[in-house]
Amino acid sequence: MAEDRSIAVDLLLTNADFVVTCDKAHRVIKNGAVAVKAGKISAVGPSHEIIAQYRSEVQLDMSGHILMPGLVNCHVHAPMTLFRGLGDDLPLEKWLFNLIFPAESRWMRSSENVYLGALLACSEMLLGGTTTFCDGYFFEEQVALAAEAAGIRAVVAQGILDFPTPDCPNPERRFKRAEEFLSGVNQTDMIFPALFCHAPYTCSPETIGTIHSLCRHHNIPFLMHLSETSEEVNSVKAKYGVTPGRLLQSLGVIDRHCIFIHGVWLDDDELKTIKDRGSRLVHCPESNLKLASGIANVPKWLDLEIPFGIGTDGAASNNNLDMFGEMRTAAQLHKGIFLDPTLCNAAEILHSATLKGAEVLGLEPLIGSIEPGKYADIIALSLKSPHLTPLYDPLSHIVYAAKASDVRHVWVGGKQVVYGGTLLSVDVQDIIDSVEKLSREILKK
């Protein structure tokens, strides 16, 4: 009997119609396979080659599916799923100050509510193919616990503002609160702590400088909403005499630690500074459209080669956490604005939701593509639907045709967390029941 020289692995995913690797070369493998061992990708290639080289007690036939990396949602306020649909068709400032901040003050003082809202968000994201998200909110320790329970990878950024917040009623303690968070949440292969300095209109130069210094000291991301609306730009100019971007430049806080969210009203000089200093951007097209904040000049970001990811923003302003819908909007929006169908092509947008998104979060060596050595964060899209038939170009299908509901299987770090469209890690119906009960209380008030 011939000696079996194949390599033993923990999982073999074989016979996928396509493996869309999302690597830098945009490699797509027809009839592809992936080998996984100890939570990481051992090999990817044509099925016949992988099957010949590797063996596993767990071998799954992925015929009729696309295998691709899990999506990276670069900006979320996960607990705000509790406010989904609570206030629509309002401009950002009125929505935020008249509705959301008061609701948070009333309902997010409870860390249990934060945990529940975050767990609902994690469930929605995993079922829709997102395997990593970047969150910015209060009680972020609870968001980390929810992410761990659901089995999703997360950057958890503790929110800091200059006025009372649910987990820091005394703003004089805001820096202490940031330090408490950083000492209480340890980085693991699943959880990555960061700080979220809300915006230039809610944080003073002192706050911005101090929080940025903490991020630099701990070598963690510094998150901030930046130039989201024209009203923000005008209010900052009225107070400080410069635009938000130039204010940050004068404070010396634009560097490789920074992840700036929205950037709708950044001008060319500000974008060049962001590029030159190694900062990154996040595009949230659907939230920006819904709040009438404006439309970021993403083609300019691409021209300048500024790394950027895609985010849904919170469910209170989107109103879902569907990264497939976000990709489709991002790809189509700028074509219509600039009357150029070549802008923001499918490959560029898909990269922004996978490999580039991972780069924005500082996680590109670990996730974002199906390549040997990276964590096996993999999703399987079923192709057995009328809206995905016929299939000529899998990248086009993922961006322009696929839906979150097409996700059938999800692995995070090689562990299957979604099977056949069912979340395995937590009881989704129990979460829904708990949120519906709480929502009735919210509606009464």
Automatic annotation (TrEMBL):
Residues 66-417 form the Amidohydrolase-related domain. GO terms for molecular function: 5'-methylthioadenosine deaminase activity; metal ion binding; S-adenosylhomocysteine deaminase activity. Substrate binds at residues 104, 198, 228, 313. Binds 1 zinc ion per subunit. Pfam families: Amidohydro_1. Keywords: Hydrolase, Metal-binding, Zinc. InterPro entries: Amidohydro-rel, Deaminase_MtaD/DadD, Metal-dep_hydrolase_composite, Metal_Hydrolase, MTA/SAH_deaminase. Its cofactor is Zn(2+). Zn(2+) binds at residues 75, 77, 225, 313. Its EC number is 3.5.4.28, 3.5.4.31. The keyword Zinc applies. It catalyses: S-methyl-5'-thioadenosine + H2O + H(+) = S-methyl-5'-thioinosine + NH4(+); S-adenosyl-L-homocysteine + H2O + H(+) = S-inosyl-L-homocysteine + NH4(+). Belongs to the metallo-dependent hydrolases superfamily. MTA/SAH deaminase family. Catalyzes the deamination of 5-methylthioadenosine and S-adenosyl-L-homocysteine into 5-methylthioinosine and S-inosyl-L-homocysteine, respectively. Is also able to deaminate adenosine. PANTHER family: AMIDOHYDROLASE-RELATED DOMAIN-CONTAINING PROTEIN, AMINOHYDROLASE SSNA-RELATED. This is 5-methylthioadenosine/S-adenosylhomocysteine deaminase. It comes from Thermodesulforhabdus norvegica. The gene is mtaD.
